[in-house]
């Protein structure tokens, strides 16, 4: 680094451990609030900065890169997903991109398991019954659900997170884990996962989990055609991005009984408006994008983002750089 300290703009209040790593060697400016920085403010504040520390809520496109100026060296996003960053524009402006894979894998797998259990064991309806007084006597046929024991689970996208979910599933006694992806995962056999076509996965799975990245190919992929191919009892879980689902089609599939239930940690848009039809359904559980929300994970994400930025500013290898060739 040159003698004058490089400047970094942080777009949100984030766990302090990340900014603390930057502070000794950088001039740090921060939008120190819990709500996103307004676009105009971002475009103003990023001017002249050497690095941008952002979140998945900020669209980082050519306009932002241009506003920053030619000295901008790196965009570090505090997320594993980077669908909010225009990689083509970053390449054009010679800006490196850092992200935070690995450190949030366990937390996201854990929350995916929570959604699986909440939907299959009908916890939303059960908790409502306790609260609203419709809990009568113990009834043998009441609030029964499919359970994981002996089930076939289909994972669409067996990357780090999908793989860890497969590990978590095994002690629950699932019979089969199927996965579909662009390529076979060479470690799949370690978790007993079998590579199949998407159609085979959809036709045979009791649970279908979306753990793929949002790309041009996966955008809106879970639509009425795919829901039709699932079992009528299938439970669909999404902890990737809301954009992989056609939400109108999902609503129809849940309402009409085309599929059994859904558990979503991600939606389009976020926050999901409170008048969304999805929220009227007993068989749909919606969470506010909290899969990585453990104290430890969010601190680790903040630190890794800072380390990516420092490495890029120092001209050393970034711990987790998005390959942008
Ligand atoms: O992309 C991510 O990192 C998650 O969606 C939020 O932690």
Automatic annotation (TrEMBL):
PROSITE patterns for this protein: D_2_HYDROXYACID_DH_3 (PS00671)
Origin: domain of life: Eukaryota
Record domain D-isomer specific 2-hydroxyacid dehydrogenase catalytic: where: 9-322
Cited Pfam families: 2-Hacid_dh, 2-Hacid_dh_C
Keyword list, A-Z: Oxidoreductase
Stretches assigned to the D-isomer specific 2-hydroxyacid dehydrogenase NAD-binding domain: 113-291
Gene Ontology MF term list: glyoxylate reductase (NADPH) activity; hydroxypyruvate reductase (NADH) activity; NAD binding
GO cellular component entries: cytosol
Family annotation (SUPFAM superfamilies): Formate/glycerate dehydrogenase catalytic domain-like (SSF52283), NAD(P)-binding Rossmann-fold domains (SSF51735)
Record's keyword annotation contains Transcription: no
Oxidoreductase among keywords: yes
Family membership noted in the UniProt record: Belongs to the D-isomer specific 2-hydroxyacid dehydrogenase family.
Protein name: Glyoxylate reductase/hydroxypyruvate reductase
Protein source organism: Lottia gigantea (Giant owl limpet)
């Amino acid at each position: 680094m040159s003698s004058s300290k490089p400047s970094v703009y942080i777009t949100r209040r984030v766990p302090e451990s990340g900014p603390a790593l930057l502070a000794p060697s950088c001039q740090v400016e921060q939008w120190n609030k819990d709500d996103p920085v307004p676009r105009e403010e971002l475009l103003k504040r990023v001017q002249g900065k050497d690095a941008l520390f952002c979140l998945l809520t900020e669209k980082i496109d050519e306009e932002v890169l241009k506003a920053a100026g030619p000295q901008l060296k790196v965009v570090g996003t505090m997320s594993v997903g980077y669908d909010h960053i225009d990689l083509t524009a970053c390449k054009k402006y010679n800006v490196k991109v850092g992200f935070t894979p690995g450190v949030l894998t366990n937390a996201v797998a854990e929350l995916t398991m929570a959604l699986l259990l909440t939907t299959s064991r009908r916890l939303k309806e059960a908790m409502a019954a306790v609260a609203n007084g419709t809990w009568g006597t113990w009834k043998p046929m009441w609030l029964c659900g499919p359970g994981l024991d002996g089930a076939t689970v289909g994972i669409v996208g067996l990357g780090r997170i999908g793989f860890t979910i497969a590990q978590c599933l095994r002690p629950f006694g699932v019979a089969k884990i199927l996965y579909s992806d662009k390529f076979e995962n060479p470690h799949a056999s370690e978790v007993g996962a079998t590579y199949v076509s998407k159609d085979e996965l959809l036709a045979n799975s009791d649970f279908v989990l979306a753990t793929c990245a949002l790309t041009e190919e996966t955008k809106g992929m879970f639509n009425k055609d795919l829901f039709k191919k699932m079992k009528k009892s299938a439970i669909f879980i999404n902890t990737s991005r809301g954009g992989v689902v056609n939400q109108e089609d999902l609503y129809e599939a849940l309402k009409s009984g085309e599929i059994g239930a859904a558990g979503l940690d991600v939606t389009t848009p976020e926050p999901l408006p409170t008048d969304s039809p999805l929220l009227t359904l007993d068989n749909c559980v919606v969470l506010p994008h909290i899969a990585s929300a453990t104290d430890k994970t969010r601190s680790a994400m903040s630190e890794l983002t800072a380390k990516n930025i420092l490495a890029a500013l120092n001209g050393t290898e970034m711990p987790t750089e998005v390959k942008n060739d």
